[in-house]
Amino acid sequence: MLAFLFRSLALPTMDTTASKIRRHLDSITRYLTPLLPIANCHMVEFLTENHWETLIPTPLRESLEKRELNDCVEKFWVAAEGKSSGTPELDAWVQEARAHYITFNEYTITARQLQDRIKAWGGDLQPEIRVSEFMNSKKSYEVQTMSHLVASLHKACGATCCVEAGGGRGHLLAALALGHGVPSLTIDCDPAAVQTAAQRVRLIQKQWHAIAKRVYNGTEEEMSKNINCDIHRFATAFITENTDLTTVVREAFPDHDQVKLLLTGLHTCGNLGPDSLRIFRTQPTTAAIFNVPCCYHLLTEELDEGVFDCFQRNFGTGGKSQGFPMSEYLRGFNLGRNARMLAAQSIDRVVSQRQLPVQSLLYRALLQVIIKENRPNSSLPEGKLKRLSKCENFEQYLKMADSILNLNLFDSSTRVLSELYPNIDQQWKKMTLFYLLRLCLAQVIESVILLDRLLYLNENGFDKVFLVKLFDPVLSPRCHSIVAVR
Length: 486
Description:
The protein has 486 residues and is α/β, with parallel strands linked by helices.
């Protein structure tokens, strides 16, 4: 961390894109660093570690404690929508966080601006393809929004094949191959998933004319019945930065004399996103990359080595390249796993749908008090209690949790039931507000992760590099993509 701070004091004088990104990162990290304890706390330990009193600034905490929960929540919705809630401390907290979210500038652009760049690079814009079956509404929206841009970029960069890293069910490239005639290779590490995806795509191919429509300016048109079902192929491989994609493509398309790739990924999980960028940097046959990342909690950091959380999980990198930071400039700066997990949450969706946390979150925190008092050395597996989210009260939750964990806790819970449980409404108010205040940091952390990746490519000599807001964040919370052309 100290090395990062010293580097941030010696910015280059030339006002390059890289220097602008560095200044952008400096502004965000200065704001975020003192708030990382909030981002990295675990909600399970809300009561045992006294998060409300120890992590929330006193003026903000006191201003909220004077009001009823419903009033506080309504004021939060107002503030989160960029309006004045009438509570200065709350407005200041929300507005300062929002001021450090990614905003549009010369390197962070809209999907419309990406289309302009593609045309400037010599590409022709391709129409959208809407697929009405075989995928849910979210996936259909993502495929419709992204596939025509990938097809347009494919032509602009002169690629011979599009490769999707971590392709899952193959939906994106199915639209690319069938709707735009682009030779496509879906790669996934799970052989069973690859086999299932290939079978699913064959079903899509058989019904393509009935389920797909070409979209021009909001008007739908029938698709051509002439499709080539042989240009979408599948391969099984665990992709790392050392994967030779050219060899994988030649094995899948032995008839291709020349290989020039567009590497894409729709919600590449964890380190697959950073490794895709490293492949683009080191393998000249990769002409362009169009990557939408997700699952930031599965990224690795140097900080993770030998670190254990309250579930006794070790998050070491195992000697592999770390997923964050990627840029040389941020080397030494760490976020922490819980902060990365927070980055994957969507304040846009929460505010739009007025979502509050489920009450089982508080029940789990009460259970942690009992465990810490009576079984302090117990190691609990994460996730075993998730199915208890619909319990009607804490006593029911405790009985069911005790049965699952087999810790014989129910008879030892007298103090919690007699002292803490009567104040459960007050504890629920504090936890709900803490959850919402903490959520304001999610996009701040995501901004650091995304700008770090953008800077990594700039540091390595690429200038056609953009962060593109691709999706509506309410419909698809991981809405940003990184687009770069060699």
